[in-house]
């Protein structure tokens, strides 16, 4: 966490991923980017929490989906 309520989230994929979507279930806040095309092996985005939370709690509540998940 770089400053209060701000968390770095790294997303990794072995191949390009279309419409990568991040969800922090039951944690109020926003991601710096969401619904993006992942063309590099790793991408880091920031999560700005609007409530008190810990890195561990966010990690437990974080879900990452892509277009691929809709068809598997």
From TrEMBL:
Residues 3-69 form the Beta-mannosidase Ig-fold domain. This is Beta-mannosidase Ig-fold domain-containing protein. It comes from Desmophyllum pertusum.
């Amino acid at each position: 966490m770089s400053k209060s309520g701000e968390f770095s989230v790294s997303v990794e994929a072995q191949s390009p991923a279309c419409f990568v979507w991040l969800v922090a279930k039951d944690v109020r806040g926003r991601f710096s980017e969401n619904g993006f095309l992942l063309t590099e092996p790793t991408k880091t985005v920031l999560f700005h929490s609007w409530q008190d939370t810990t890195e561990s709690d966010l990690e437990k509540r974080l879900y990452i989906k892509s277009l691929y998940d809709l068809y598997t």
